[in-house]
Specification:
Length: about 290
């Protein structure tokens, strides 16, 4: 969930490269289950497009899942795509891996071929008119091709409701601030259109059919691995920066303790830190 950052629309994705990469690596077990599900839906695609690929972690998983496919990672950030190409080379899939730099959805007009599988992981919500964006994505599918959109799910939990100090329910209160931030981020996007986020209906309105929806869990029980601890620290640090002016003083004090490496009750040391979240994927098919 790469949302806690900067002013609403000028997210510096390249600056977030390390965060995006380590988060995607942490979430790889979830993505592998998603791709296993997609592989039952989409057999032997010739071209897979990752729209809003970032540093290419999922793009490379697509290369593993579909050994016969060409993969195109598409993103507005050339530094992130540089990382994607390096990752593809490291994994030995560079010969069928390419990148395309530019803003979604217009840049997809530069694809040489229509896609058999077009994947958009939490990229559509960064586009002002989500319905128009999905319609544009759908138009880049081959007949019988599948559009898979990862949007929605559940907020991440990594602490018990009562952590032994401060008011219980800190993460739920941060969720409320996050929702308000996200709503404002959407409102500030160029050409922003308020949309009822019923993704199957939006996919149908984009001219697709056979909609399916499934959610996937990432469940790392306590004591969570170091990578999950680093992710939780990153998330709370961003929340502290982003929501500083909106936090109740007691919650701000609680966050400061949770982030203080010298405090034995901080995220750095807690044995009860876990990671639990769900991501939802919606698919639909272009009529033949």
């Amino acid at each position: 969930m790469a949302h806690h950052h900067h002013d609403h629309t000028d997210i510096d994705w390249a600056e977030m490269a390390d965060h995006l990469e380590s988060q995607a690596e942490l979430f790889t077990p979830l993505y592998e289950r998603v791709l296993g599900w997609l592989a039952k839906e989409v057999t032997e695609p010739g071209l897979v497009v990752d729209a809003g690929s970032g540093p290419g972690v999922i793009s490379c998983l697509f290369a593993d899942t579909f050994p016969g496919a060409r993969i195109v990672a598409v993103d507005g950030s050339e530094p992130l795509l540089e990382r994607a190409r390096a990752r593809a080379a490291d994994r030995g899939v560079a010969d069928r891996f390419s990148t395309l730099t530019g803003e979604l959805p217009a840049v997809l007009d530069d694809l040489e071929y229509p896609a058999d599988l077009l994947w958009a992981s939490r990229s559509v919500h960064h586009l002002g008119d989500q319905q128009a964006a999905l319609t544009a994505l759908a138009s880049r599918l081959a007949p019988g091709g599948t559009l898979a959109v990862m949007e929605g799910g559940l907020p991440t939990r990594f602490l018990p409701r009562d952590i032994g100090f401060g008011r219980p329910g800190l993460q739920a209160r941060l969720d409320v601030l996050q929702e308000e931030w996200f709503t404002q981020m959407r409102a500030d996007l160029p050409g922003s259109v308020a949309t009822t986020e019923h993704w199957p209906a939006l996919l149908t309105a984009a001219g697709l059919h056979h909609t399916r929806t499934r959610s996937f869990l990432l469940d790392l029980p306590a004591p969570a691995p170091d990578r999950a601890r680093a992710y939780a620290l990153d998330m709370l640090t961003r929340a502290r920066e982003t929501f500083a002016d909106h936090l109740a003083p007691d919650d701000r004090a609680t966050l400061d303790r949770l982030l203080d490496p010298d405090d034995k009750s901080s995220l750095h040391h807690r044995p009860d830190l876990f990671l639990l979240t769900a991501h939802t994927v919606h698919t639909a098919v272009r009529p033949v």
